[in-house]
Amino acid sequence: MTSNDKYQPRPEHKFSFGLWTVGNRGRDPFGDFVRPLLSPPELVDLLGEVGAWGVNLHDNDLVPIDATPAEHDKIVRDFKKACEKNNIVVPMATVSLFFHPVFRDGAFTANDPNVRAYALQKTMRAMDLGAELGAKIFVLWGGREGTETDSCRNPADAVKHLREAVNYLCEYNTAQKYGYTFALEAKPNEPRGDIYMSTTGHYLAFIPTLDHPEMVGVNPEVAHETMAGLNFLHGVAQAWESGKLFHIDLNDQYPGRYDQDLRFGSANLKSNFFLVKFLEEVKYSGPRHFDAHAYRTENYEGVKDFARGCMRTYLMLKEKAEQWRADKEIQAILKEVTSGNSSIPKTGKYSKDGASALLAHNFDKDAMMKKRLPYERLDQLTIDILLGTR
């Protein structure tokens, strides 16, 4: 890409990647690593080369779980230098409560109180690390918070333990004056057979039960909702309308498959178009984080192609969304289908007089049925724009 390429990422786009995404070495349950290990500073150099704005990390993506204090300090110092050299920021941090075998039965919801306490300690230390690096968003993904068999615990107890943990972390956040907002990330299954908070909607119902709901929102991920056959845009829109869209994970996914974490826009182009269109229309100002992985066939040049592709596709879909909004025929259809008779009683807010007027109003169902809803044409116009024929 050239410097005048209109699809070139710029800092104002707020494109970020995790160390675990560009650093993914291509291992899967059936095959070993295909790419060599790169250090965190080397991964930051890679992100600087492709034009990313931010880098995110789990605690142990940067600092090994058993590192000494001296090792910790050197690793963090070298990482900060790499970020400064590449003008890369750290907008979000998170914690790994799923990789180490100690979390085989969960973390905050584990039956063993020792494990639950250790999970809190590990998360607090991850918050310390993120704050040191400048992060203001802390994501919590309960990758092991689930079961293979419901005989192991009452699921209501799991919800109770999860609430206690998030409340504790909110208090720690306040005591340390970190200023974090927490973003809870849902997933229906994998690596557990069933995960308790399986969709964004589950978390939106959970958050109001917390002691500090104002501090906690959600981090929806394309793949996680799509795995369950859900419409990702609808979950994002509900989160936004609730004031709880604190972060978002962009990737792609075929429904009914394992968690694929495909390059953004590579599988479901139309649904991703409507997602980008929505984020841009509501002026979502948070990071656009790509939680995805390059194909296992690639070397690190291919990883760069993957990262550039995620950002480029987002910007192309953003341009298509602008074209969609400017299209006169599309806007005329939208105006027509949303128009109504001016004599309709007001229904935006209840009042006694308004309710009486509504009950007394005579609706002409036959006339309403004659109004055309040309959604076939509207959808085809969308396809024409996406395929560049309009």
Given helix and strand content, the structural type is alpha/beta
Widest β-sheet, arrangement of strands: 8-6-4-3-2-1-10-9
Count of helical segments? 15
Low-confidence stretches: none
Number of domains: 2
CATH homology-level superfamily of the largest domain: Divalent-metal-dependent TIM barrel enzymes
Query: How large a portion of the residues is in β-strands, by DSSP E?
Result: 5-15%
In the CATH hierarchy, what is the class of the largest domain? Answer: Alpha Beta
Could you tell me the number of beta strands?
Answer: 10
**Shape summary:** globular
**What's the pLDDT, averaged over the residues?**
97
Order of helices and strands: EHHEHHEHEEHEEHEHHEHEHHHHH
At CATH level 3, the topology of the largest domain is TIM Barrel
- What distance lies between the first and last C-alpha atoms, to the nearest angstrom? 25 Å
What is the helix fraction of residues, given as a range?
Answer: 40-55%
CATH architecture of the largest domain: Alpha-Beta Barrel
